[in-house]
C-alpha cells in the first residue's frame, strides 16, 4: 500500500515537471535531430506526444530506448549444397505492461534501425489496444522469394535456435508480419517445442489446425475496417457503404481489408502490390482478384480492371486511402499528391514526419498505425489466451471481441484528441505513453 502511494506520488510529481526544467525536447529541437531513419521518425512522433505530457528527460529516455537488441547471423546449407548467411534481429522495446510481443518480418531491406522502430511501435500499439503485452519486433534480411520452401524452413528453425533463450510464452511472443505467415509460425512453434516442451503459446498466427485462432489471419484487415467505420462515424462522414477506397499493398492486410470493405458495401477502386496496380472505377471485384492471385497470376493482369502505374496509387482519387505495404511511402512529396479525405494507416510507419505535416496542413485526417492495424495483435492476444487455456473460440466470438476492442480504443483516442485538440496520431501516443509510464511506475525500477 505504501509502495503504491509512493508510486502514485512519483507519478503525480512527474506529471507536474514543467517544460522549463529543460529536459523536454520541444518542437523547436525536432528539426535538428530529424533524419530519414525509421526509428528517428517513430521517435519524432513519440516526442511530439511527450511534449504534451511534460515528462522529465530520464523518463523520456526510458520510454524511447529499447530494452534489448539481439543481432544474430543465421547460416543455412542451401539445396545446392552451398552455405549462405543472413542477418537477423529481435528488438525487445518494452515489457512493462506484459511479455514482449510483435511480428517477424522477412525482407531484403530489413535492418536494425527498421526493427527498432517497429518494436517501439508495438509497445505503443499494445498499450493503445489495452492488451497485456509489451512491444518487440524481429526480422531477417532475406528475400524469401529467392529461397525454396525447405530453405525457408531451415532459416526459420535457425532463427528459433538463435533466439530460444530470449523468447517464450511469458517472455517474448512473435507473430507474422511482412512475408511471414502461419507456416513460418508453425515451424517456429515446432522448433521451440524441441527445446522447451510443447509450447503453442510461444508464437501467434499459427495455422488454425495447429493451435492457431480462428480470425487471426484476417484480423489486421478486419480491424482496419472496424477502425475506419469508427472514424467515419465520429467525424459524421457517413459509412463504409458510401465510400470509395484505394489500397496500397495486397498481401495479408491489404487483401483482407479490401474484401471486408467490399462486403460492407464500400467500393474498392484500386489496389497495388510490389509489382503493379489495378483500377476499376465501378469498384474491383475483390474476391475475384484474390482468386486470380491465388492461381499465381500477377495482380496487374486481372482482366476485370485496368492496369495503372503503381506510382500513381497514392494519388488516385478516393475517400479513404489505405497504405497497407511498407514504411515511409507518404513523405512530403507524395503527401501533396494525395487526393483523399482520410488516410487509414494499415501498414506500420507509412508516413514520415514531413509527410504527416503536409497531411495536417492539407486537412487530411490520418488514423495512425498504432491504432489502425492493432487488430492483428489483438487477435494474437486472443490466440495466446486460447493456447494457455487449451481452448478454442468460435470465429464469430473472436470477431465480436475484436470489434469491441477496436471500438473502445477508438473512443479513448477520439476523446483525448477532442479534449486536447490534438491530431489522432498524437492523441494515440499520449494514451499509450500514459499507460506504459503508469506500468513502469507501479512496478518500480529496482
Ligand atoms: N500481418 C499482420 O498481421 C500485420 C501487418 N502489419 C503491417 O501491414 C503491412 C503489410 O503487412 P502484410 O500484409 O502482413 O504483408 P504481406 O507480405 O502479406 O503483404 C505485403 C504487400 O505489400 C506489397 N508491397 C511490398 N513492397 C511494396 C511496395 N514497395 N509498393 C507497393 N506494395 C508493396 C507486397 O507485394 C504485398 O502485396 C506491413 O507494414 C506490416 O508491418 C501490421 C500489423 C499486423
Ligand atoms: O500479432 C502480433 O503479435 C504482432 C503483429 C505485428 O507485428 C504488428 O502489429 O505490427
Automatic annotation (TrEMBL):
Keywords: NAD, Oxidoreductase
UniProt superkingdom: Eukaryota
Sequence ranges assigned to domain Glutamate/phenylalanine/leucine/valine/L-tryptophan dehydrogenase C-terminal in this UniProt record: 213-444
Keyword Transmembrane helix in annotation: no
Family (UniProt): Belongs to the Glu/Leu/Phe/Val dehydrogenases family.
InterPro entries hit by this protein: Aminoacid_DH-like_N_sf, Glu/Leu/Phe/Val/Trp_DH, Glu/Leu/Phe/Val/Trp_DH_C, Glu/Leu/Phe/Val/Trp_DH_dimer, Glu/Leu/Phe/Val_DH_AS, Glu_DH, NAD(P)-bd_dom_sf, NAD_bind_Glu_DH
Catalysis: reaction(s): L-glutamate + NAD(+) + H2O = 2-oxoglutarate + NH4(+) + NADH + H(+); L-glutamate + NADP(+) + H2O = 2-oxoglutarate + NH4(+) + NADPH + H(+)
A matching Pfam family: ELFV_dehydrog_N
UniProt organism field: Coccomyxa viridis
Protein name, as recorded: Glutamate dehydrogenase
Entry coiled-coil feature ranges: none
Gene that encodes the chain: g4429
Amino acid at each position: 500500500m505504501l509502495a503504491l502511494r509512493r508510486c502514485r506520488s512519483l507519478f503525480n510529481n512527474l506529471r507536474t515537471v514543467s517544460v522549463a526544467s529543460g529536459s523536454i525536447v520541444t518542437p523547436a529541437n525536432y528539426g535538428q535531430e530529424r533524419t530519414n531513419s525509421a526509428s528517428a521518425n517513430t521517435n519524432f512522433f513519440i516526442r511530439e506526444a511527450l511534449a504534451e505530457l511534460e515528462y522529465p528527460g530520464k523518463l523520456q529516455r526510458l520510454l524511447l530506448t529499447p530494452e534489448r537488441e539481439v543481432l544474430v547471423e543465421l547460416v543455412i546449407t542451401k539445396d545446392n549444397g552451398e552455405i549462405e548467411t543472413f542477418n537477423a534481429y529481435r528488438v525487445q522495446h518494452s515489457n512493462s505492461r506484459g511479455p514482449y510481443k510483435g511480428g517477424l518480418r522477412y525482407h531484403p531491406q530489413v535492418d536494425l534501425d527498421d526493427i527498432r522502430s517497429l518494436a517501439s511501435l508495438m509497445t505503443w500499439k499494445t498499450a493503445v489496444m489495452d492488451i497485456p503485452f509489451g512491444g518487440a519486433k524481429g526480422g531477417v534480411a532475406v528475400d524469401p522469394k529467392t529461397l525454396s520452401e525447405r530453405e525457408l524452413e531451415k532459416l526459420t528453425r535457425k532463427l528459433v535456435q538463435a533466439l530460444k533463450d530470449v523468447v517464450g510464452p511469458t517472455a517474448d511472443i512473435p507473430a507474422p508480419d511482412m512475408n511471414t505467415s502461419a507456416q513460418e509460425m508453425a515451424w517456429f512453434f515446432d522448433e521451440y517445442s524441441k527445446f522447451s516442451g510443447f509450447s503453442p503459446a510461444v508464437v501467434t498466427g499459427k495455422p488454425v489446425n495447429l493451435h492457431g485462432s480462428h480470425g487471426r489471419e484476417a484480423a489486421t484487415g478486419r480491424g482496419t475496417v472496424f477502425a475506419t467505420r469508427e472514424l467515419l462515424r465520429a467525424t459524421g462522414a457517413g459509412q463504409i457503404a458510401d465510400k470509395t477506397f484505394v489500397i496500397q499493398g495486397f498481401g495479408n492486410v491489404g487483401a483482407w481489408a479490401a474484401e471486408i470493405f467490399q462486403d460492407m458495401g464500400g467500393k474498392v477502386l484500386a489496389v497495388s502490390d510490389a509489382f503493379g496496380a489495378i483500377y476499376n472505377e465501378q469498384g474491383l471485384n475483390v474476391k475475384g482478384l484474390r482468386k486470380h492471385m491465388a492461381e499465381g497470376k500477377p495482380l496487374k493482369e486481372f482482366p476485370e480492371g485496368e492496369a495503372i502505374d503503381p506510382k500513381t496509387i497514392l494519388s488516385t482519387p478516393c475517400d479513404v486511402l489505405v497504405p497497407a505495404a511498407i514504411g515511409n511511402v507518404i513523405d512530403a512529396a507524395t503527401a501533396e499528391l494525395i487526393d483523399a479525405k482520410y488516410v487509414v494507416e494499415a501498414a506500420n510507419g507509412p508516413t514520415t514526419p514531413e509527410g504527416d505535416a503536409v497531411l495536417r496542413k492539407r486537412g487530411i485526417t490520418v488514423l495512425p498505425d498504432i491504432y489502425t492495424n492493432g487488430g492483428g495483435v489483438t487477435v494474437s492476444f486472443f490466440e495466446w489466451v486460447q493456447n494457455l487455456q487449451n481452448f478454442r473460440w468460435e470465429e464469430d466470438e473472436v470477431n465480436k471481441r475484436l470489434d469491441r476492442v477496436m471500438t473502445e480504443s477508438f473512443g479513448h483516442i477520439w476523446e483525448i484528441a477532442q479534449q486536447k485538440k490534438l491530431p489522432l496520431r498524437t492523441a494515440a501516443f499520449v494514451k499509450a505513453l500514459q499507460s506504459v509510464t503508469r506500468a513502469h511506475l507501479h512496478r518500480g525500477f529496482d
